[in-house]
């Protein structure tokens, strides 16, 4: 009987330890649309000085998204630990977003590897702060151990500075009209952070009848490989000169990035950016310009004339050479 009593006592002690070592923090957009959070504040929700696991849940209204930006990140790592590959054995922070009816893991971070800016495409983003070290050890170091972040609940994609017209009938559609701006910039949602998962965005260009659209990518990081199709579960960018899905050009992703400027065939142009519910990347940054077709044709004519001149020069040289041979 004594042995059984000891076993029960050990199990109860372990249960109490696990309950005391965990904490839950729920942040709802009903009270605050934006705010700040620190690991120090999270520590107040548990009285344990032992290693802990704390879950931070950011919950918005059904039509809201959540953005998270880290302003400081330095988690404790013992001198004998190598965190270049895995974070599971040291203090770490992980992030999950809701995709459909399930939570999908984005990544986990440790040491001084600051997480990129995060954005959800749904109304739930969850962080989990796991500490393998004791509170006393973390507080005994001279370094500023822990993290600080800023969060924000919003209904748009935080892309107001892109100077595009937002189509409220669609979840993610931006229109660029040459009557308002003849050139400008465009980028993926949350750039240069990780773009949201499971999103479908359209960038529509409307020019005058005599105009075409020129798009040049300064930065391109879209997750995917091979032909960027559904079989490879790749995110992708796709261009179309038509409002339907017919006769679209090739897809771009991964190493299959645009090698040079993209030029439309008419004054209407559509760029589609589609992401799935797995893996992430930091998106794209590009600039566009509406160009009149006359100017583009002039540039082609100049190229043709230049080529003809080179051919004429070579022919003239051959004739001159034959003439000299005949004189000799």
TrEMBL record:
Residues annotated as signal peptide: 1-21
GO cellular component, one term: plasma membrane
Listed name of the protein: CUB domain-containing protein
Superkingdom of the organism of origin: Eukaryota
SUPFAM superfamilies xref list: Spermadhesin, CUB domain
The UniProt record lists the keyword Disulfide bond: yes
Domain (CUB): residue spans on this chain: 23-154, 172-291
Any Pfam family the entry gives: CUB
Native species: Caenorhabditis tropicalis
InterPro entries linked: CUB_dom, Non-NMDA_GluR_Accessory, Sperma_CUB_dom_sf
Keywords: Disulfide bond, Signal
Keyword Signal carried by entry: yes
